[in-house]
Amino acid sequence: MQPFRIDIPQADLDDLHRRLDATRWPDELPGVGATRGVPLAQVKELAAYWRNGFDWRAAEARLNAHPQFTAEIDGADIHFLHVRSPEADATPLLLTHGWPGAVAEFLDVIGPLTDPRAHGGDPADAFHLVIPSIPGYGFSTLRDAGWDAPRIARAWAELMSRLGYDKYIAQGGDAGSVISQELGRVDPDHVLGVHVNMLMTFPSGDPAELAALDENDQGRLGKLVRFDGELSGYMKVQATRPQTLAYGLTDSPVGQLAWIAEKFIEWTDPDRSEPEHVDRDLLLTIVSIYWLTATAGPSANFYYEGAEGVRKVAAGILPPPLTVPVGVAVFPHDIFVPIRSLADRDIPTITHWTEFGSGGHFAALEEPALLTQDIRAFARSLKADAA
């Protein structure tokens, strides 16, 4: 286990700026708006800010303000933040990002989660945080095939063991939700509970099950149908041809920018005032991590490895049931909004369920206070049950 510090060579930043200046822009059909992808004017404006307004060194310093390490586990060098709370009896909490995310997603929740006393909260709610980069994402290497969610979960269990954490909570959204649930399966003797802010619920095909859904749940089912028909193109490409995709995204920073920014625009709460619905500098921090580490292709491989598992779940072939308590935070503008009856059918150990009135897929970025509040509430419920 080695200390790690992000230090991008200036030559890489100069190359990024040169490539942005030399962008070859595509044409755009008149009057189509965002129906065929991110509008040209929006990408041009965001790219101009990336080139002239965004400060990578400030973002780098913000990340480096937290202790970081790498550890070789199962042939991969795993990068992670390890931020211990000033409260000695804090609960260990492992946070896992997804795609197109990075450890930078969690910057706004690190302080409140580790040091609630300093943020107007109860010190009894404190956590020791472990925030790893998925293999192939950012500063974690990917050297061989086969890094699906169960393998990543086993690596996370090994990481927590090496750090000396006998009992801990796992939390995540997007891929982090899938990995956290797998962690509850592979390490149930040490996982106190699993908290997720994205949960996929699929109907079984039983007409009686569908007939029992109310209007609200039918709307949620409609979001799933829309995702499959309109919004899942990225997933199908990454799950089938990640290497082919990698050439363009690794060579063109604007290509990488548009590929990621589209998700932040489409998967987030449209009522937020920011043009991209999240803090622009944090968005570009995440885009820059993908660009500067050339991990467009390696990160896409997660979808290739998980494609068969997704097909099985969609067909009603579920993994073994979780035996640890599960908490679910539901944000209304997520790409998947779970249906409670279907969730209880698939996960009988759900003990905590919260529905929020705002927020989308990137909860830690969009609604850090709400996510922090819900993780704390779930952890309190686990302590109450244990008592």
Q: Which terms would index this structure?
A:
387 residues; alpha/beta; nine-stranded mixed beta sheet; 16 helices; 9 strands; 13% strand
Describe this structure in words.
Helix 4 (107-114) links the parallel strand 4 (91-96) and strand 5. The chain has 387 residues and is an alpha/beta fold. A nine-stranded mixed β-sheet has the order 1-2-3-5-4-6-7-8-9, with helices on both faces. The model has no long low-confidence stretch (mean pLDDT 95). Helices cover 48% and strands 13% of the residues. The chain is built from 16 helices and nine strands. Helix 9 (233-240) crosses helix 13 and helix 11 (253-266) packs across helix 12. It is globular, with a radius of gyration of 20 Å.
In a nutshell, what does this entry contain?
With 387 residues, this protein is α/β, with parallel strands linked by helices. Helix content is 48%, strand content 13%.
Mean pLDDT across all amino acids: 95
How do the strands of the widest beta sheet line up side by side?
1-2-3-5-4-6-7-8-9
Total number of helices? 16
What is the helix content? 40-55%
Give the termini separation.
Answer: 35 Å
Number of DSSP strand runs? 9
Helical/strand content category: alpha/beta
